[in-house]
Amino acid sequence: MDISVVIVAAGRGQRMGGDIAKQYLTISGQTILEHTLSFWDRCPGVSEIILVLPPEDLGLWAGKLRQEYKRLNAVVPGGKDRTESVLSGVGKAMAQAEFVAVHDGVRPLLSEEMVLRVFEGAKQCDCVIPVVPLRDTVKKIDPEGYVTATPPRECMVAVQTPQLFRRRVLLELLRAPRRHPVTDEATLFERAGHPVLTVPGDLRNIKITTVEDLLVAEVFLKEQRK
Fold first, then answer.
1. Radius of gyration, alpha carbons of the chain
2. DSSP tag of 151
3. CA–CA distance, 195 with 198 (Å, rounded to integer)
4. How far apart are CA 40 and CA 22, in angstroms?
5. Number of domains within the chain
6. Which of 4, 147, 169, 196 shows the smallest number of beta carbons within 10 Å?
7. DSSP label at residue 112
8. pLDDT in tens, 108-163
9. If residue 149 lies in a helix (H) or strand (E), which one and from where to where?
10. CATH number of domain containing 219
C-alpha cells in the first residue's frame, strides 16, 4: 500500500498556559512536533508526510522542517476547525495514495507495533482506529451535573490516532455538509454508515494536553532510549 500520513498540528490550544502552542513545547531536547515527525519519517510503509500547521506559523517552520525530514512532502495551512484542517492535508496527498493515516501532532509516543496493527487492518476495512480500554468507571451526566446513566465499561474504549482511511472515501466525507462538528474522522464514517474497525492501541500513545502529560511523556521517552 501507498500510505500518506497527515499530521494535524494546526491548533493554538494553550491549556498549559504561556504563549507557546503545545506542539512547540520541548521534551527531551526536541519539540513535541519534532518527536512526532521523527517517528513517521522512519516508519516502514509510509510514502509521504503532509503537515498541517496554523497559517501564521508556516513561514517560521515550513522551510526548516522540510529540510530535516525527507518524507515531509508538504506543509499546509489549517482551517477554522479540525475537519477543514484535515481536508487541507488529505487534499495534498499524492494521487496514488490509496490510504491516508491521520495523526495528532501532539501524540509523539508512537510504536511501530501499534502502527503496524492499524496498517494491517486496512486489509479488512476502509476505516481503522486504535483504541485502549477504559480503566475508570464512566458516568453520563446532565447539564446540571447529575448522573443519568452508567454505561458498561467493558463496552467502552478510548480512541487514539493514527486513524487509517481509504483516501477516496475520506475525501468524500470531509467535503460533505454536516450539522455538527466532529473530534475525529472516524465519526464521519460512523455517521455515514460505514464500518469502523478497532485494533489494540497503546497506553503510552498519549495526547499531550496538560503539564502532567509533559512529565509523563518525558519519562516514557527516556525509557524508549534505554
1. 17
2. -
3. 10
4. 19
5. 1
6. 147
7. H
8. 999 999 999 999 999 999 999 999 999 999 999 999 999 999 999 989 999 999 99
9. strand 147-149
10. 3.90.550.10
